[in-house]
Amino acid sequence: MDFARTDEQRMLGETLDAMLTVASSDWRIVGEAGLDALGIAAADDGLGEEARDAAVVAAAFGRANVVLPWAEHWVATRLGERGDGGPRAADPAAVLARAGNQRAWAEDALTVLHCAEIVGLCRTMLRDAARFAKERRQFGVAIASFQALRHRMADMAMTLELAAAMTDVAIDALDADDGNEAVRANAVSAARVTCDDAARLVGEGAVQIHGAMGLTAELALGGYFRRARTLAQGDGTARAHLRRYAA
Fold it and tell me: Alpha carbon 85 to chain centroid distance?
């Protein structure tokens, strides 16, 4: 289960996988799943403020392509916003406008949760590509037996696992709260760059393996790819994060 370390986090991810579909892209699912208490300290009757919990949710949303402003909502909640009936914030600009002197932390938190969602999206795109390759036959054999495609899918899997590992490191840096902003910034930017690679390489590979159907409305894959590329265009873009890391 992506980013889960405790039994509770693994159970949360498994529960969300069982209940979520693309049709779950309605904010009511957050209340139904009991996620509204994440980002609130246990002392305030919440479920805790760990970014890892929020990342488990973001990855699950990605695996099902549930398109909701979860990252923005969690960061706004973590910054002290309260209230029911909908997301605390619907876009990054609204969160950052409220962040004040915590703006740098908020920017990094949004980036990390978007990375977690990209990992979830890529996880499903790679799975669907592998399944299709086993079913699609040419020249009397499954295309999964073609060496070129096997190498392509191996590259996709390696890129995805690197993105997941770097995002895991960034989650730890975000949760450390030790005042070392340089370490956090490096970890977050490294994750953002590798997730950009994953969104592109895994998404494009999955679409190409599906052939002409890859971007049609007939397949869910097209929606996953578009969401991954949309997320990859935000958070200052990978190029800006590469410059920040280099600096």
Answer: 24
